[in-house]
Amino acid sequence: MLDEFSQRTQVGVQVDAQPTDDLSRDEKKAAAVRAIAELRDHGRAGIDRNLQASAAVAALKADLPHGEFGRFCTETLQISSTYRARLLRLAEVGDHVREALAWAATQEHRLAECQSAQNLIKVVDDWFNKDKPAEPKAKTQAGKRSQDIIAEQERVIEEAAALVQERDRTIFEHEFEIASRDDVIADLERRLAECEDDIAALRDPLPDEAREQALEAMTSSRATAAGELAAIAKRHHWRLKDLCHELENFTAVQISADA
To answer: How confident is the model at residue 155 (pLDDT cuts 50, 70, 90)?
Structure first.
C-alpha cells in the first residue's frame, strides 16, 4: 500500500526540504508515506527518521478532514492508532529532542543513546521533569514494567496483524490460481468434446455385414480375432475403442429386444 501510494503521487517532496504548511494535501500524504516507509525500513529506529515521520504525520492530521486521517494511517500508512498517537506526541515535543538528548548524555541517562519514538518521548519527558523530586524507586520500577508489557503487547499485535494480511493475500492468490486452473480445465474439456464430435463425423457408417463380422471377431477366442477386429475398424475409419463400444451397445439393445 505504501509503495502503491508513493508511485501514484510521484511527488518529490521531503519533510525537511520545505515547511509542511507550503505543501499540498497530496504532497503531505506522499511525504508521510515516504517518511513511514523509511522509518520502517530501519526498524523504526533513528532520531532524524522518527522526527521526520512524526512531523509528516502531524502535518497530515492538521490538513485532513475529520475521519480521513485515521483511515489513511490505517489503510495507507499501515500504522496502529497507538503508534500514530506516539508519533503525534513526538511531533509535539520534537523541538526539545536535541536538547533533551544532550542533557541525557551528561546525566548518563539509560536512554541517552535511544533511537525509537517511544524512548525519545521518554527522554524529553524526563528532561521536562528533571527538576521535580524523584518518585519512589518501587513506583518507578512498576511503571517501567507496565511500559515494557504494553510495548511488548503492541509489538505482538502488529506482528499478528502482519501475519493476518499475509495469510489473506496467500488465500486470495491460491483462490485465483484455482479459478484459473478451473477455466483451463473447462476449456480443455470443451475442446476434447469438439474433437470427439469431429472424429465421429469422419468415420463411415458401419454396414450390417461389417457389424456381424466385428461381433463375431469380438466374441471369438481365436488368436487372429483381435487383428480382424482392428482391421474392420480401420477399414471403416473407426477407432477400435469406439467400435467395441458400438458393438457392446448393439448387443445390449438386441438382448433387451429379445427379452
So the answer is: confident
Torsion-angle region of 47 (φ positive above 0: left; ψ -120 to 50: alpha; else: beta): alpha
Residue tagged 484455482 (cell numbers): 178
Residues 95 and 194 placed together within one structural domain of the fold: no
Residue 7 sits in the same domain as residue 100: yes
Single residue among 79, 105, 132 that ends a domain in this structure: 132
Q: Are residues 214 and 178 in the same domain?
A: no
Do the beta carbons of residue 40 and residue 6 sit within 8 Å? no
How many folded domains does the chain comprise? 3
pLDDT in tens, 51-80: 999 999 999 889 888 889 889 999 999 998
Note the pLDDT tens digit of each residue in 199-216: 888 888 888 898 999 999
What's the angle, vertex CA 34, arms to CA 64 and CA 120, rounded to 5? 85
Judge if 99 and 30 occupy the same domain: yes
Residue 196 sits at the vertex; the CA angle it makes with 195 and 198, to the nearest 5 degrees, is 65
Q: Which domain holds residue 153?
A: 135-202
Task: Indicate the residue type of 50.
Answer: N
* CB of 130 closer than 8 Å to CB of 103: yes
The whole-angstrom separation of Cα 238 and Cα 252 is 20
Q: Which grid coordinates are listed for 82?
A: 497507538
The pLDDT of residue 8 is 46
